[in-house]
From TrEMBL:
<dbReference type="InterPro" id="IPR046373">
    <property type="entry name" value="Acyl-CoA_Oxase/DH_mid-dom_sf"/>
</dbReference>
<feature type="domain" description="Acyl-CoA dehydrogenase/oxidase C-terminal">
    <location>
        <begin position="232"/>
        <end position="378"/>
    </location>
</feature>
<dbReference type="InterPro" id="IPR006091">
    <property type="entry name" value="Acyl-CoA_Oxase/DH_mid-dom"/>
</dbReference>
<dbReference type="GO" id="GO:0046949">
    <property type="term" value="P:fatty-acyl-CoA biosynthetic process"/>
</dbReference>
<feature type="domain" description="Acyl-CoA dehydrogenase/oxidase N-terminal">
    <location>
        <begin position="15"/>
        <end position="125"/>
    </location>
</feature>
<dbReference type="InterPro" id="IPR052033">
    <property type="entry name" value="Glutaryl-CoA_DH_mitochondrial"/>
</dbReference>
<dbReference type="InterPro" id="IPR006089">
    <property type="entry name" value="Acyl-CoA_DH_CS"/>
</dbReference>
<dbReference type="GO" id="GO:0050660">
    <property type="term" value="F:flavin adenine dinucleotide binding"/>
</dbReference>
<dbReference type="InterPro" id="IPR009100">
    <property type="entry name" value="AcylCoA_DH/oxidase_NM_dom_sf"/>
</dbReference>
<protein>
    <recommendedName>
        <fullName>glutaryl-CoA dehydrogenase (ETF)</fullName>
        <ecNumber>1.3.8.6</ecNumber>
    </recommendedName>
</protein>
<dbReference type="InterPro" id="IPR013786">
    <property type="entry name" value="AcylCoA_DH/ox_N"/>
</dbReference>
<dbReference type="InterPro" id="IPR009075">
    <property type="entry name" value="AcylCo_DH/oxidase_C"/>
</dbReference>
<dbReference type="InterPro" id="IPR036250">
    <property type="entry name" value="AcylCo_DH-like_C"/>
</dbReference>
<comment type="pathway">
    <text>Amino-acid metabolism; tryptophan metabolism.</text>
</comment>
<keyword id="KW-0285">Flavoprotein</keyword>
<dbReference type="Pfam" id="PF02770">
    <property type="entry name" value="Acyl-CoA_dh_M"/>
</dbReference>
<keyword id="KW-0560">Oxidoreductase</keyword>
Length: 386
């Protein structure tokens, strides 16, 4: 972190390779995203032109091994997510949906033929993927999904609806989860398959520089080879969701840091009653509280990243990070907006954009309530979801 955000010398806890990855992504964001993001957000446009560059930087499926994937560490992936979300949540969301969800599902649960067919092109950014789990009436409870896949000879026929499916209208391939007579199964579906239709959800007040869609599946016929052989039951998609949740733990701190630094710079030069805002005790208290939570959130993310790299990360630990860091990040962004006063509601400054985006980030990949109950179940030994 910049010196006036890093109170605890957290940078000293990273390796040279980790810092190099962070700096590469930060340079990309500073040069290619910051000058344009306000316009993309206002126009509700995701910049398709950045996708090949994300691939060339090794940011797509970056934590996956083989099949053209970079095979970077969990901490490197986390730092990349942080810097991307400091630009905009929509950018980090693209990398998350592409790499952790769509590519992650194929890498974790696919056949060798499926992996070789899709992963190299997806890692390069030549093919965009989406991940269809959530439905209009099945968000936090995906076990109640109504999308159904029936056998017909050697083929599968899928019918149903999905909602809030990131990238679906720009994707060339979809990973779709459906109920079958054998429980929940996953399928790889080329987006040009007859019966597959993706419609962007508009208008939105959050994640405007991003793509989320309604997806309709009407008598979609897939060959038997479309089935993901390694995924049975909800554990299949949940393992992918945990990968995406991990990236959010870091990404949320990127949005928080960007908002904090914006408020800090503004308060130093904004004069009120012939004195910089930063010189007032109430402003300093706000800035101190922001910096403390960013530092605590970074330490939490780093510990979770080290556990993941060591192969010891548990699902409840991911919930602890996602719940805390999203909750604190949105508070920081809102407080930063308050320091900016009326100017803070314009797109000239990022805190309100970040806060609006975090309303979505806080909701997807598990709401605050879901992660609270995961932690509550771990602490008490008593599941309280119903």
């Amino acid at each position: 972190m910049p010196d006036n955000a890093d109170l605890l010398d957290i940078d000293s806890l990273f390796t040279a390779d980790e810092l190099a990855m962070r700096d590469t992504v930060r340079t990309f964001v500073d040069a290619g995203i910051r000058p344009n993001i306000a316009g993309w957000y206002e126009d509700a446009v995701f910049p398709l032109e950045v996708i090949p560059e994300l691939g060339s930087l090794g940011l797509l499926g970056m934590h996956l091994e083989g099949y053209g994937c970079p095979g970077r560490s969990a901490v490197e992936y986390g730092l990349a997510a942080l810097e991307l979300e400091a630009g905009d949540s929509g950018l980090r969301t693209f990398v998350s949906v592409q790499g952790s969800l769509a590519m992650g599902a194929i890498h974790k649960h696919g056949s060798e033929e499926q992996k070789h067919e899709w992963l190299p092109r997806m890692a390069a950014g030549a093919v965009v993927g989406c991940f269809g789990l959530t439905e209009p009436d099945a968000g936090s409870d995906p076990g109640s999904m109504k999308t159904f896949a029936r056998r017909e000879g050697g083929d599968w026929i899928l019918n149903g609806s999905k909602r809030w499916i990131g990238l679906a209208s720009i994707a060339q391939v979809a990973v779709i989860w459906a109920m079958t007579d054998d429980g929940v199964r996953g399928f790889i579906m080329p987006a040009d398959t007859p019966g597959f239709q993706a419609t962007p959800i508009e208008p939105k007040l959050s994640m405007r520089a991003s793509v989320q869609c309604d997806v309709e599946l009407r008598e979609v016929r897939l060959p038997g080879s479309a089935l993901l052989p390694g995924a049975r039951g909800l554990r299949g998609p949940f393992e992918c969701l945990n990968e995406a949740r991990y990236g959010i733990i870091w990404g949320a701190m990127g949005a928080a840091r960007d908002s904090y630094l914006t408020a800090l710079e503004y308060s130093r030069r904004r004069l009120q009653f012939d004195k910089p805002l930063a010189g007032y005790q109430l402003t300093q208290e706000k800035l101190v509280n922001m910096a403390l939570e960013i530092n605590k959130g970074m330490l939490l993310a780093l510990q979770i990243g080290r556990l993941k790299d060591a192969g010891r990360l548990q699902p409840h630990q991911i919930s602890a990070g996602k719940l805390n860091n999203c909750r604190e990040a949105i508070r920081i962004c809102r407080e930063a907006r308050a320091i900016l006063g009326g100017n803070g509601i314009t797109l000239d400054y990022p805190p309100m954009r970040h806060a609006n985006n975090l309303e979505s980030v806080r909701t997807y990949e598990g709401t605050d309530e879901v992660h609270t109950l995961i932690l509550g179940s771990h602490i008490t030994g008593i599941p309280a979801f119903r």
